[in-house]
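Appendix B, example 12.
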Amino acid sequence: MSDQRQAVVVRRAEHADVDGFVACSSALFAEDAGTRDPSINLDWPRQHGHRRFTTGMDDPNRLLLVADCDGEVVGHLVGALGDASAMKPVRVATLVSMYVRPAFRRSRVGGRLVAEFIGWAKGAGAETAEVTAYASNTEAIRFYERNGFAPQSMTLRMSL
């Protein structure tokens, strides 16, 4: 596996990557939201991902990255820039979603994706970066903290 890990290239997504992007997004939904949030439509990536990811590639306020191993998408990251407002007078970069296939975890692929995102955000003039994670996903929270993020707020939810 170490040879595979060394061959992973982090780069901007291209239109030829959309099927791999959808597959990774589907895996993320199943593994993360699928085990933590019954209100999420687990078929969203298959139903809407092609259109969403294709248009995102052409949007200058969005970043779509893939982790590519010999032509196979083994991870992805989606980032978005928000404009400053009167209420929040700073430009914010949001790490919208990220996934690395289990066989490629613990090999710095996720860290490389985040580093590319942070570089893009700084280059675009963002003053802060943010990411959300399910409170029960302690592994993801630890990963993001190791990569420079710190807790800011908590969302509390009640089923009705």
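Residues 1-5 have pLDDT under 50 and may be disordered. The beta strands are 8-12, 62-69, 72-82, 92-100, 128-131.
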